[in-house]
Amino acid sequence: MDYISLIFLSCALAMDAFAVSLCKGFSVKKLNLRHYFIVGIYFGGFQALMPALGYIIGISFASFIASIDHWVAFILLGLIGLKMIKESFESENCDTNANQFGFKIMFALAFATSIDALAVGVSFAFLEVNLSIALLLIGLITFILCTIALKIGNKFGVFLKNKAEFLGGVVLIVLGIKILIEHLFFNA
């Protein structure tokens, strides 16, 4: 997977955490540096950790499905993308825990928003991906986008929440299609 695709993938994976960060920013009267680091480290850290775990899971059965690996990546990315698009149409307000930054809340939110990244990590096992670069980009881009979302949510509210999830879903589907086309037509 080339660097441009990895950057788009990183941005797409960050969109769930971006949406939650918007809510967190909206719910806090006055942000301080601690809020930015908590949001960035939890979401960025989990978004980088989960693909690594997914890769370990995927590599354990990669040899069994090597001939259809491009289909697996396409299906995983497509399903995750469709799920994100579906969620973007659900009218979900920020929950009552949005203004809380404690360990239990942040751990649960970071885990929940990074489940998609676990599935993407499984697809990494079937693709030519520099795993360390991919994990670094995913974590760093998520960190940056979530800290920006915290500020946006604090200043302007959460009107971007559903648009971010929709865009992330579309990007994942497009990446899945790109992988499938490359393997079917250009890796003969």
TrEMBL record:
GO CC entries: plasma membrane
Entry GO MF terms: manganese ion transmembrane transporter activity
Coiled-coil parts of chain: none
Major localization listed first in the record, in broad terms: membrane
Keyword Cell membrane among UniProt keywords: yes
Keyword set, alphabetical order: Cell membrane, Ion transport, Manganese, Membrane, Transmembrane, Transmembrane helix, Transport
Membrane topology: Multi-pass membrane protein
Cross-referenced Pfam families: Mntp (PF02659)
InterPro entries per record: Mntp/YtaF, Put_MntP
Family of the protein in this entry: Belongs to the MntP (TC 9.B.29) family.
Biological function: Probably functions as a manganese efflux pump.
Protein name: Putative manganese efflux pump MntP
Source species taxonomy: Bacteria, Pseudomonadati, Campylobacterota, Epsilonproteobacteria, Campylobacterales
